[in-house]
Automatic annotation (TrEMBL), chains A, B:
Keyword Oxidoreductase attached: yes
Name of the protein in its database record: Acyl-coenzyme A oxidase
Species whose genome carries this gene: Percolomonas cosmopolitus
Residue ranges constituting the Acyl-CoA oxidase/dehydrogenase middle domain according to the UniProt record: 185-295
Swiss-Prot/TrEMBL keywords: FAD, Fatty acid metabolism, Flavoprotein, Lipid metabolism, Oxidoreductase, Peroxisome
Feature: compositional bias, Polar residues: 729-740
Length: 764, 764
């Protein structure tokens, strides 16, 4: 068992040797793994009342209809299939674990070239057909995370800066970047400044004599830091720098700065290029740092859409203030935020899918008088971990879809979007990016843990999802900074509301009530002993929560700004502003979901979808009870009981519900989460397949053992001796206290799982 | 910038070249990094009212006294210093990032040999001086995580099984294992079974003809899986298998099975050895799988303390039932759980230390009329992230210490521990292991995010802490399974209580009140408009919470077991049992802390310690408000307000509070968290030092830039032009709505930070 420094090298030489072994792990004889079926029609489904599932059970509802509904009516199936097909290419599926970052970066760069060569990922398509372009971006989750992020830098950040901040004269560079002929970096962040972009220190000083800009890094704090593509691949960088003309500082503008020789790939003179080094994840992305020692670039390299300099050094701009011009420059970051919204949701789905399929298949412990063991998904504690995550994957689909709709209408040539709508889009994308990514990160950890030891295997992907996803909370805008944009927007709307309603013209005249446009009903009357499973109750409770936090925030800031100044007053309110943004994003999600579910004709599906809503809404109420306690008059027990029983009901559909996510096995690539087969075979196969050098000479030995218990039912009854049964379950040893020796665990029976629509009779 | 497949190899050749560069990054000229001071006496400390901290400010309180208190009176300083010194050895500090797992495993194995050679880590020392042995285990956090876990396998699991389950005849193997002459694995888990150990399928069948046991893996589900040391290093394994004698199954026993030739290190005949492969973290630990094809071992290899077989095949044991004997075998897992309790707390401290020092140093945005920017620790939202974590690091110290005390008294030769105490110790260690590790994992993610982009750098260690720590939730017993042990124990105690008090003899007679031993006060009377900052209120609220959940659980299970059977009733109560365990662990922590803080003479320290308690207790109440809402009659606003203001107050002491953790820089090894120096220098230095091959030819270019702004004050005033100031802060663009152009942000002034003891006048 010699250490292997680079396992991928040994792969080919050992493949033949292992093929004999693999056939044991593929009962149907197929040695090509994994299964590439796009839809998982034969899905395991659990009855989950004690006993293990088998692979032959039926779907618990019409999965295909559900999948279709979840995908949405506007999906271009041909486009989706095309990208899925691309995602099966060998270069995309190259295993990357255990390779040094330099090797992972090399593979990722090849992946990007392959993807760009398809022509599907050109930013200019955003203008031609924004809706389809958004679908392409959504499909980027079929690619490995590093490739997807590196592509994002090239496509949305670098090419995006050319398209959105450049003019005619930058079109040629854009075209070359779209083909991947030029790789670019996006140079905003500096060592000392990330969120506070206006404090950047890099300068671009105009020299009228040579008609050049002189780009300079005045201090080490001003080194550009973290730039994707900068460490190895980029030849050009969009550099954010203060424009200085005739000693006057015009604030942040963006300049195209060549950093490497296009042919030799060597750093250009006076350009410092360094490697930021190892990261928590995204090992395939080459994040680097840059410094400029009075590097001269032609005047035309200013991306001059929002501000320009004449040859003899006059500054011109359609914006009168630095602040507004700055806003225009930053506005384009929104695409990245919307992308994170759906990427984050997709990661969440993959993770709960793996955990749910595993939970349905894995058995552990069981009722003492039975031969079988109990699927871990049948444990109430397990249901309470996974079902709220699963529910959120359904509920969040529709606010996401609405956000994408808003975003695409901004880009369609025939729509004229109002300033108000634009402001809302900014605020909403910022807030949703934050809440989606916060929650997904939390959920990833729960799903990992729910899979026990096998969840810790790198092959089951929780590790890489956790490490790659976490940065979604930080880049494209730090979450805590972003939610303040949504908070500010809402307070502005709140102020307007009062102006319109003549209740008061200025903030400091806010009374104790909230205007009718925000909430109409007196909480005390509506929320006493409500039906916690009704959508009406839930929507009203969520609205009142938003309204009450909004009112508190606005009032507090308004009262304190006179005493402390605005910045201090704002700072004092920050914890509440964070809550406000969450409340709003959750309310928006709930309302979008309710209105979409109402349109579902299929009664069976609608019932399940309502239960998912109950689970999600009640979880939000439970987790934020401090927000709700003054609004609703409900016993804690009734929240808990309703939540637990809804989780139990939905758990019997859980496998079909994750099947409807329609994530193909080759994308999933996790042995415990594949759509078919015995998960233990898959685990063993991955361990052997991915570490060929470490499994010499075990083929012969494994034979025989491999042929044993090919399904779980056999396993459950093949224990050596019945006498052992007596003592089992007692590793929860204290439980035995409650056992009476004559007691028999009884089946729950097939309790009615049908729930009338009247659970939700109050649908408006 | 050529890709480097193994950066460690290039290290030596490039070191000279880079030394010129390093001196810029070490202003004092010392090229040896990092700083190895054991105590960080000169600690940066923030005033934190707008403006950046400098390195010269004073400690906010007597850090040395605090550190001493936190370390505890029984610490053997000489021992601690000795292990600290060991932890500075080159082999221990070898950088491991970006190395393939095979290389990391090799280094980790060398580290273990080095540590074992010291003679400090011999399990038999546990019998000689249990308290000191526990200190040694606690000091294992000075070593890298992989080394610490691999050492744990050798020391606690493998050698521990020999010591605790073996007899005289196994002493020799134990001695050799303690010296590291033999490396061993601990073979409990199988592919199909982790938590449910009693369902293991591996068999050990006695053959009276040869006086041997035949070890067999009957199926692939029964492959031993995940065993530390098995993939590469172990020559022996303690195998958990069902003992079969004369066709009778006597349940789980443990057998010493040779798996590799001691000389050649090749697998022995009929032993399957495989590599479990890549994991989320702990890359230095070689987890492997094992299978046995009728492998014969001598009869003496049975670890026969609790059960034995005579030569001619009669089974003997001091236990009459399989279940009790099983309990005895499993009991020894407790040491590992106690270890996780303090390791987890130590990881939590390291993580909040890094985040807190960074938060005090990092500035971002600022009041519009100021030249300086604002330390991010001055943001209320940031305080609300970090201060509760910091507080928990203080509060949890004392329940941990009490647990260790209970544990060591179990091992001291002169104490005879009662069965009741033993049961409590089991339950408590299980519950604390779960709650400590759950919370630390959540906190790690918060700390990472609080450090923004720089938190994502692998050098800042959040990544490895997250990936290495997460498995603490799973191994040595899955958390959700473990909390059921504590839950079961409490319910048993509850039942006893009622028997003693004659309130009722059986569970189904429980009334609606809780016995006086558990809670004495009528909630309605005590908790109306209480002082939420008093320890009395907090302790009572926590007690009532535990009591009410306990009562609900017991009642529910008791009612339902008749209808559904015990297993189903237990399952239905699981979510509440999880809450019960948390409530109890938190109550225990609070009570231990209160009683310790009461003894602190130094008034200044006591005031701060009480604020930490307030922060922690109020956070628990806020996060679990559903548990508390029926108990306490407090306005949500008063919880929130008190919590926020306590966080703000403590934030001014935060840096000194983390300094008192006394974690030396060489252990911390995180550029943004080191005790001294400019964090940006450290970041740059690490990037260059750890990637020598990727930073060719930049020395000359970096000169000049490196000499700029060596402290943050310079940086804050060196911005190119004042005109830019006008627009800053507006990337939170909606905020400008509230700005009036004439408004000035005023200093908070130096508000009284002194708080009278009367905050807590109700100390009993
Ligand atoms: C893998 C990776 C790739 C990246 N790629 C690029 C790239 O290609 N190009 C590029 O330009 N940049 C890139 N970045 C940088 C990224 O955009 C920044 O890290 C991000 O904007 C956050 O900034 P920061 O790291 O400076 O955090 P900071 O702004 O310093 O924030 C640190 C902490 O302070 C808190 N904080 C800051 N301000 C406030 C406030 N006003 N109120 C409350 N809390 C506050 C934050 O919540 C955060 O927790 C990348 C970063 C990473 C890690
Ligand atoms: C890095 C690593 C090192 C290890 N080292 C060793 C070693 O050296 N030797 C060794 O023997 N083992 C080792 N293990 C195995 C480890 O001890 C097991 O993974 C652990 O005991 C959990 O068992 P499991 O993985 O089978 O999870 P399972 O028991 O299958 O649990 C899976 C999920 O089901 C849930 N669940 C299970 N039962 C219940 C229940 N009754 N009620 C509610 N929920 C339930 C759990 O909460 C969990 O979320 C190691 C594992 C890892 C990952």
């Amino acid at each position: 068992m010699s250490p292997v420094s680079n396992p991928s090298l040994q792969h080919t030489t050992q493949q033949r040797r292992l093929s004999a072994l693999y056939k044991h792990l593929h009962p149907n004889g197929a040695a090509t793994a994994p299964d590439h079926n796009l839809t998982t029609k034969i899905s395991p489904n659990a009855t989950l009342k004690f006993g293990s599932i088998t692979e032959t059970q039926q779907q618990s509802f019409d999965v295909e209809s559900m999948a279709e509904w979840l995908l949405g009516p506007n999906t271009n199936q041909k486009l989706r299939q095309k990208i899925l097909a691309m995602s099966k290419a060998d270069i995309i599926r190259t295993p990357m674990l255990n390779l040094p970052k330099e090797e992972q970066r090399r593979i990722t760069t090849e992946q990007i070239k392959y993807i760009l060569a398809s022509g599907e990922y050109r930013i200019s398509l955003m203008k031609q057909n924004p809706s389809e372009m958004m679908q392409r971006l959504e499909c980027m989750t079929f690619f490995p995370a590093s490739a997807s992020v590196k592509l994002g830098v090239q496509l949305l950040l670098f090419s995006g800066s050319l398209m959105n901040l450049g003019t005619e004269r930058h079109k040629d560079v854009l075209r070359r970047a779209e083909k991947g002929e030029i790789m670019g970096a996006f140079g905003m962040t500096e060592l000392a400044h990330g969120s506070a972009v206006q404090k950047l220190e890099t300068t671009a000083t105009y020299d009228p004599d040579t008609k050049e800009f002189v780009i300079n890094t005045p201090s080490k704090n001003a080194l550009k830091w973290w730039l994707g593509n900068a460490a190895c691949t980029a030849t050009l960088c969009s550099v954010f720098a203060r424009l200085i003309v005739k000693d006057q500082d015009y604030g942040i503008h963006v300049f195209l700065v060549p950093i490497r020789d296009e042919k030799t790939k060597q750093p250009l003179p006076d350009v410092i290029i360094g490697d930021c080094g190892d990261k928590q994840g995204l090992h395939g992305v080459d994040n680097g740092f840059l410094g400029f020692k009075n590097v001269r670039i032609p005047k035309d390299n200013l991306l001059n859409r929002f501000g320009d300099v004449t040859d003899d050094g006059e500054y011109t701009s359609q914006f009168s203030s630095n602040a507004r011009r700055f806003g225009a420059h930053m506005g384009e970051l929104i695409t990245g935020r919307v992308s994170i919204v759906f990427s984050s949701l997709q990661v969440r789905r993959a993770s709960v899918l793996i955990a749910t399929r595993y939970a349905a298949r894995r058995v552990q412990f069981g009722a003492p008088d039975r031969t079988g063991e109990q699927s871990i998904l049948s444990y109430r504690s397990h249901q309470m971990k996974l079902m709220p995550i699963l529910a959120s994957c359904y509920v969040y689909e529709f606010s996401k879809r609405d956000l994408v709709r808003k975003y695409t209408s901004l880009h369609s040539p025939d729509t004229k979007i109002s300033d108000d709508d634009l402001a809302e889009l900014h605020a909403l994308s910022a807030g949703m990016k934050a809440v989606f990514s916060w929650d997904t990160q939390k959920y990833l950890e729960i799903c990992r843990e729910a899979c026990g030891g096998h969840g810790y295997s790198a092959y089951n992907r929780f590790g890489s999802m956790i490490n790659d996803h976490t940065i979604f909370q930080t880049f494209e805008g730090d979450n805590t900074v972003l939610v303040q944009q949504l908070g500010g927007f809402l307070m502005k709307e709140f102020a307007k509301q009062f102006q319109k309603n003549q209740v008061g013209a200025v903030l400091n005249m806010i009374g104790s009530r909230i205007g009718s446009a925000i909430a109409t009903i007196n909480p005390a009357q509506v929320f006493t002993n409500p039906n916690v499973k009704s959508s009406n109750f839930q929507v009203q409770a969520f609205r009142h929560r938003t309204a009450s936090i909004l009112q508190t925030c606005a009032q507090q800031i308004n009262n304190q700004r006179k005493k402390k100044g605005f910045v201090n007053a704002w700072n004092d309110a920050l914890p509440q502003i964070v809550s406000l943004a969450r409340a709003y994003v959750e309310q928006y999600a709930l309302e979008q979901y309710v209105s979409q579910v109402r349109r579902v004709k299929n009664r069976e599906l609608r019932t399940i979808l309502k239960r998912l809503r109950n689970i999600w809404a009640l979880t939000v109420i439970k987790d934020n009870f401090l927000d709700f306690v003054n609004i609703i008059n409900v016993k804690p027990e009734s929240i808990r009981k309703a939540l637990e029983s809804q989780c139990e009901k939905v758990s019997t559909h859980a496998v079909s519900l994750v099947d409807a996510f329609n994530i193909p096995d080759h994308v999933l690539d996790a042995p415990i989460g594949l759509s078919k087969g015995n998960y233990m075979d898959h685990i063993l196969r991955y361990a052997i397949e991915r570490n060929p050098g470490n499994h010499e000479n075990i083929e012969g030995l494994l034979e025989g053992i491999l042929e044993s218990n090919d399904n779980l039912t056999t396993q459950a009854t093949s224990r050596p001796s019945a006498s052992a049964e007596r003592s089992h379950q007692s590793s929860l040893s204290e439980q035995t206290l409650f056992h009476s020796s004559t007691e028999k665990a009884e089946s729950n029976g097939d309790e009615s799982d049908v729930e009338s629509d009247s659970d939700d009779e109050m649908e408006q």
